[in-house]
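Handoff note, outgoing to incoming analyst
You'll be picking up this chain. Sequence as last confirmed:
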Amino acid sequence: MTRSFNGRTALVTGHCSGIGAATAALLAESGARVIGVDVSQGRDVASPEMWEALGGDLADIDLAVVNAGISSAGAIAEMDFARWRRTLSVNLDGAMLTLRAAMRAMIAHGRGGAIAVTASISGIKAEPGVGAYGASKAGVIQLARVAAKEGAPHGIRVNAIAPGGVDTPIWDDLDFFPAMIAEYGSREAAIDAMAKAATPLGRWASAGEVARQIVFLLSDDAANITGAVLAADGGYSL
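Most recent structure output, in case you need it:
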């Protein structure tokens, strides 16, 4: 289904790769003016000063995708504290600062709006090795739910999506992934092996699939949905 966002302005963080890139492209194709914020542009979502500098550029936003994040893996007993802090800073502090900026703009212009927050099924299901990442995403889920309650009187809807495995470049930053590529012979084969082992559906989502789900949450088709967490995980959490 093609959805129209003509005349609307969308903020998308982490828009230069993966889910963010797919979502930004889909929103633009649907008529939205997209404002992208990405670390590759020198814009760190965890920096309050960066958000202050953006200032009036965000005044007209009607939609926001709180998507920027980093991966992290490692046992709690072996975890480097600096890595823990950086994961929480980008994934949770960055989400709060993005939500704050978006909600301030939407409250100020008085038209309300819709916000989608990219969480993760790791924020719901516990697994060894995802202490920092899982904690950050659990925090993001609760943050989105609180934002939904606070935003409702202003006509602002806030929902979260919790993907399971998604084939994006985020895997390339994990220490164990090169060994899996070597074991299975290719990046595609390594991704396929993990998906078949982890999910009842035996496959992971593409970034484009998740982008379409995010766009649904932003659309008028979801006008009565707020505070929801969409588990888009191929059955991994069952």
